[in-house]
Amino acid sequence: MATEHYFTKAVWETHAEPTPFRALPGNIEVDVAVVGGGITGLTAAYNLTKAGKKVVVLEGKEVAKGTTGSSTGNLYIPIGERLFSIAEKHDEQTMHEVALSRKTAIDFIESCIKEHSIDCEFKRVPWYLFTTPETSKASDQVNKEFEAAQKLNLPVINTPPEGFPFKVDSITCISDQAQYNPLAYTQQLAGVVARYGGTIYESTRVTEVKDGSPCEVITNRGVVRAQKVIMATHSPKGIYAVHTAMAPYREFVLGVKLKGTLPKPGIYWHIHEDTLYSIRPYSGPQGNYLVVLGRSQKVGHKKDTEKSFKKVEQYLEKHFSVESIEYVWAAQNYEPVDNLPYIGTSPVQTHVYIATGFAADGLVYGTLSGMILSDLILEKKNQWAKIYDPKRFTPVASAKKFLKDNIDVARHLIKDHLIYGEIKELKELNPGEGKTISIDGEKVAAYRDDNKSLHLVSAICPHMGCVVHWNNGEKSWDCPCHGSRFSVEGEVLEGPAYKNLARAEASGNKKTDNK
Ligand SMILES: Cc1cc2nc3c(=O)[nH]c(=O)nc-3n(C[C@H](O)[C@H](O)[C@H](O)COP(=O)(O)OP(=O)(O)OC[C@H]3O[C@@H](n4cnc5c(N)ncnc54)[C@H](O)[C@@H]3O)c2cc1C
User: Fold this and answer.
1) What's the 190 CA to ligand 1 centre distance in angstroms?
2) Confidence check: pLDDT of 255 > 70
3) How far does the centroid of ligand 1 lie from the alpha carbon of residue 27, in Å?
4) Which pairs with CB-CB distance under 8 Å and at least 24 residues apart come from 95-100?
5) What pLDDT shows up at residue 329?
6) Atom of ligand 1 nearest to the CA of 280
7) Is a pLDDT exceeding 90 seen at residue 20?
């Protein structure tokens, strides 16, 4: 078994219908402009359109094909950092509110599917958090999560069901969670928004948002004037205080065919070697697959991201009998310092709303954000707006992680500039490699493709000036500070940066160097 091609598409994309939305034709005026057509933006647009607001969704690429379409489609009340951590960092009441709000969001998804006959393979399944004998030292966490679930009156037991595919040391099982095809759901939700009278534009990249009355949303296709703007771009574009209060991580996913039958449907979270592997058996029109995600790592912090894919592959080899690897992909999360996402207006803005810091729990948090933000805009009371408010200040809950993440950013801002340049001459660069270099005093990110051609762009991230790092698994330039990522041509792929990496001045005469 070998992962020959890093980064294919997510398993859901093979049978996805193309979406029919054109680009913004010129300047327009609306009540609400939603930037980003993922689950967050489309849920907000759905509620607002239904309530009679004139809404436009501006999507830079294609709806649902950002992180939402690269997720694993699990819908659960617990969170990756564990429910008990909310009680520890905040208090039991907050843990209770988090659980209730997440349950409400899952129920919202289910009723939306029923109401609009959305065909997305939704089903109720159990969720398992477990350790196996070789990782029994983490069983404390599993037991604490069991106690937390009991306190929350969730349908929980701590014994494995018959035929469980692992020999467990400790386990927490919560029934009545859910799974679906996240791409199919979100694409069809876009269709519902359009049928209700909302307008959706794809290939419409927002390049600036000006808060005001009205706000001005500048795009590559025209200007949108809107009373309110929802920044639903996963990490808000531009400079926001919340960027200092969350850290970007990449997650690595394989979709494989097994030699035998798939385990029973369920969300399997295996704590193994100090990391969490999330396993999902998936039977859909494409066939039967086991989707496994693990080895998350901070964006731009490891040179060899190929190794992370390999580690997931090794994990699979150890625990399952794999016939073939069919899908390999990665996607990004933003982990908040106090384990709660940021949903609402940011401290310096009045009419611009943000929703971010979902960690890997954002299909549910994204839905919840759509519900909360639409209520705020419609001036309806929402019982959870306060706990997720980006303006909350939680020094005790956040201090340790906040300091660590920001020392990390400062280190990259300073050290990467002081000790700059991985190679001295372009001829040191082999095909398939990306390295930083100084050319005539300019900091350049250089990539040599398999045909030996050079791709030279500025190595300085336009968001806040950090030096980008090479990601060899996905062949991209990644910023270690706030998670902006760029193609080898410098095009912004995701993250808070609005602008592309500048074209390197040196590139003019250095497309090839006869290496
Ligand atoms: C590998 C992986 C697996 C996951 N699995 C799960 C799971 O099983 N369950 C769960 O609950 N959560 C999961 N998550 C988390 C979840 O997928 C995300 O939190 C969620 O999809 C975020 O949705 P979003 O709408 O906020 O962002 P996105 O889906 O990323 O949508 C943002 C959109 O904004 C667009 N955009 C960006 N910039 C611009 C611009 N300048 N102009 C216009 N448009 C722009 C993008 O193209 C994109 O379409 C997972 C995450 C990862 C990384």
Assistant:
1) 15
2) yes
3) 27
4) 95/148, 95/151, 95/152, 96/152, 97/383, 97/384, 97/387, 98/340, 98/387, 99/152, 99/154
5) 93
6) 8
7) no
